[in-house]
Structure formats: C-alpha cells, structure tokens
Amino acid sequence: MKKRLCATGAVLGVLTTAAALPPAAAASPYPGGHPSPTRHVLPLGPADLPETRTTTTLQPGVTLTRIERGNADDPALHWTVEVSIPGGETSPDPDAPPTALKDRASAEELAAELRRDGFEARVEEVKTPRTADYEGGTLGRRVRVGTFDSQAAATAERTRLRAAGHTGSAVYTGWDGETTDRGPWHVDLLTVDPRRFRGTLDASYGPDLEQRETTSALSASAAATAAVNAGFFVLDPKAGAPGDPAGVGVYDGRLLSEPVAGRPGLVLHDDARRTEITRLTWQGSVTTRGSSLPLDGINRVPGLIRNCGGGGGDAPTSLPLHDVTCTDPDELVAFTPDYGGRTPGGEGVEAVLDAHDRVVQLRSPRGGTIPPGGSTVQASGDRVADLTATAHTGDRLRVSTPLLDARGRRITPSPRTHIVNAGPELVRDGRIHVTPATDGMVRPDDPSWYYGWVHKRNPRTLAGVDAAGRTVLVTADGRGTGSLGLSIGESAEVARSLGLRDAVNLDGGGSTTMVAEGAVLNSPSDATGERPVGDALLILPHRDGT
Question: For residue 525, which of 457, 479, 471, 487 has the smallest C-alpha distance?
C-alpha cells in the first residue's frame, strides 16, 4: 500500500509498508538486474523469523527504509554476569571492551574459586569465524555466573561478586552473536539514487576539527534532510584533541587529516555518483630554499597518533592498530585554520605562515592562533632542529600533502569530493571480504579486545554502494534487549544481503546515529544519550528547495 504524505516543499513523503516479508534464507544479491535494497530478508537468526520493512521517500532520489526482524521474547536469551576486569568504567571511552577472555587453565581456576565462594560459575569456550585475513578459531574462555531474567537481577549478582572480591559486568546473551538467536534487530538504511538525486551528499566536521558535535547538531546546522555518523575520532584527551578524525579526512577536496597507513576510506561526491571504498596513504612534506622535510601529520597533536599507522619511529608500531594511541616524540605536524581557534601547546617550535605561505613568526613553546588564511607547522623533539634550520622569518614555506592510493598513485580530490575514515572492509566486489587483521583490529596478545569489538554484537554504522551505483548508509541499534546489534561478520552479511557491491564499517558503538527530518531515528546506546562525534555524512536537499 502506498500513501502520498506530501507532494510539495523540500520533502516528498511516500510511505510503503510491507507488513511481513516471506521468511527465506539470504540468497545471492545478484540473481539478475540491479539489486534492490529491500529484495532479501536480513540474514540474521533462523530463516522463519518475521520481518517488516517500511520505506519512506525523504526527497527525490532518497529513501529511508526501517527494518524490524525477529522476536522480542526469545526464551533462550537471558542476563548473566561475565567475570572479568571491566574496561569501560573508569575510561573516558565507554566503548572500551572488558578484558573478558582467559586461557582454559586460568578460566577453570577462576570458576573453581567462584564456586567455593558460593557462585554458580561456568566456563564457556569462545570461537570466532574466519575472515579474509584472519584464521579465527578459539579466542579463549570466558567465565560467567548465573542465569537471570532481568538486568537488575544480574546487576545485583554482580554487586554480590564485588563484595566477595571479584569483578564483572552484567551482559545479555543475545549480544554473543549466536546464529540461533531470534532477535530482535532494528536496522535503518538511507539509499541515495544518483539517477534521481538532485541534492548534495556531504561530509561535515562542524565548526572545527578539534571539537565534537552530535550528528543531529551537524545535520541541523546544514539543514540536512538526513544524516549518519561517520569516521572514527579521538575521544580521550590523552589521545589527542577530542573530535579530531582518527584517520583520513577529506572535506570539500581538502586533506585535513592524514590516513592511517593503508586503511580504507569511504569516498563520496556531492552528486552521489562514483561512491567507492579505497585504501589510502599519503606523503607530506615541507619545502623551502630547495630543502624538504617529511611531514608526520595534519591537524593533530604532535606525538599522538590515534589508531597508529603513522611513519617510522612510532611506538609500539607504524602499522594500523585500532583504538591504540601510538607515540612519537619527534614529529612535524601541519595545521590549517580548520583545526580550531588555537593550535596545541607544548614544548617545541612552531612556524607561523601567512596567507602567502611566508613565515611571519617562529614561536616557542608551540601553540597559538593561526593568521586568517594562513597555517602553521609544529615541530617536537629532534624535529625542532630540522625546522629551525629550514624555516626563517620571511621565507616561503610550502606544505604539500598529496594523497596516494594503495599502489602509490597520487589522488587529487575535487572540491566536490569527501573522504571519511573507516574499517574494516565488509564486502568487496559483491563478496564477503572482512579485513580486521589488515586494519589493526587483531591483537594476538589481547583476544578480549577482538572479542568485544569484532566478535560480539554492537551498534554499527555501515556504508557502501550497490550494483546500480546507489549509496547506502546503514545503522543497526544494539547493546539492548530491544535490538541485539551486529557482529562485524554479521555486518558484512547484512551489507551483502542489502545488495551492496562494496561496503565498509564506520564508527559504531555509542556513536551510531541516524537522523532524518530533524529527528534522531535510532536509539543511541550511551547512557547519556546521543554522543558527540568527529564528523557525519549529510544528505542535503536541492539548493532551490525542490
């Protein structure tokens, strides 16, 4: 049934409701012709689960589809207490997963101790699926106590555990990712069809890079029709400037945050055509008087490299390592006015450039304002001597920040191009292609992190493009009993079932947010409500409002 809600103004609302789709296993999304984002049921839980979809046209070429799948009363699911060292209670990052897994001997020893203390403890083996670049297998053993009908009862048992000297967290077994779970799941998707779209597909970081704003605030400030949160960003002040992208950031064709070496970026264009997922690197430099110095970063606190993947000298690694802040005391970092009102302060020296790239000041310690239209270059540690030997007042200092693809070829984004950081990949060329190892999400010495971030279900934000060239933005609620969330593997399966030819994971957890027509549609999982983020993807109406 179709009901025309509105035929004038910036929004053309057409509502299509499917009371229930026939239960079916997920089939190949390419049986012939162009795949439809609503062609197949979601590959979550048993095939006989009920599923409903409601599709609304928000503006010409833009639809919103809301999917509800599964049952709200799965008797197999319950609350329990996972005995571990919590990772999120004292951390400024509420997404930090707990240290939950142990080797078999340690787990059995802990379970025996708990039983002696009067608790009903059990040991469970955790196995994780193979991916494109990780063999999977047994991650470790977890120790759990009790089976409860409510979170309150599990929390009370956790309190009793703590009184006995143990630590743990109340968890819902529906978040474990078992294929037999019956849900429910709540998934929303925005589909932008470039053949009919006359608006603008944009990426925004707000007034400046170093501050965070909610997705709904970014959407409202741009008068967007719809929006989702985008890339990973710095959250902890100890890891840099909160809000700063933790990876590549290209806005209106300008590289304002350097890539995490080789990790994927979601490439978008204003007209919603040619959306793609590309692995990126860069090679920055500062040149004057015939000499050149290599740059380490753009618009970030020197010495702190969130998600790692920087240059040589970074510790503990120069490879991508997700949710880890690598360090390097000796860095050269360029700043543009997009960073914020003042550049970061600290020991070292800072070359201040005017709008013509001439050095107007060498200030030490570093930190201060940037001239209108100008920029700065900060040096720390051993790089101070390099910069002071190269840059002198009155010199012209040329800052170059070329973006490179995986083959080392230079990429020159147009002013209508935007790139946000992402990872891991989920779908490549229509096939499941999940890359946690390549993108720094496998830690051999810390399987609990993989268990919490990749293996278990969480809120997720995904993006990709289908065979018809349509850009699709997806959010899945999680961390509740009303919507279980998705593991990274399930995210890939869902993306493929929606017909995506290529898909990638964006920032999720408490960051996952979708906004349409001024309202937050999903249920952000942070206890404080919608989380301020680093940047967002915006769908804007046509300039003349039609």
Answer: 479
Neighbours of 47 (CB within 10 A): 11
> Who's near 474: CB < 8 A, 6+ residues apart?
187, 188, 189, 190, 460, 461, 462, 463, 464, 494, 495, 498
Task: Give residue 33's pLDDT band: very low, low, confident or very high (50, 70, 90).
Answer: very low
Q: How far is CA 77 from the centre of its chain?
A: 28
pLDDT at position 9 is: 31
Contacts of 68 (CB under 8 A, 6+ apart): 51, 52, 53, 184, 185, 186
| Alpha carbons 46 and 24: distance in angstroms, whole number | 9
pLDDT in tens, 94-151: 565 567 898 888 889 889 999 999 999 999 999 999 999 999 999 999 999 999 999 9
In this predicted structure, the answer to whether residue 542 has a pLDDT above a threshold of 80 is: yes
Q: Going by DSSP bridges, is the β-strand pair 403-405/14-18 parallel, antiparallel, or unpaired?
A: unpaired
**DSSP codes, 236-297:** SGGGSSTT-BSS-EEETTEEEEPPPTT-EEEEEETTS-S-EEEEEEE--EEEETTEEEE--E
Q: State the Cα angle at 369 between 363 and 374, rounded to 5°.
A: 90
Task: Tell me the residue type at 100.
Answer: A
Structure token pair of residue 164: 């006995």
Question: Among residues of the chain, what percentage have pLDDT more than 70?
Answer: 90
Pairing label, strands 285-288, 398-400: antiparallel
Cα gap 144→121, rounded to integer Å: 6
Judged by DSSP in three states, 349 sits in strand
Contact status, residue 442 vs residue 9, Cβ threshold 8 Å: no
pLDDT, tens digit, for every residue of 471-506?
Answer: 999 999 999 999 999 999 999 999 999 999 999 999
Cis previous bond, 372, omega within 30: no
* CA–CA distance, 195 with 192 (Å, rounded to integer): 9
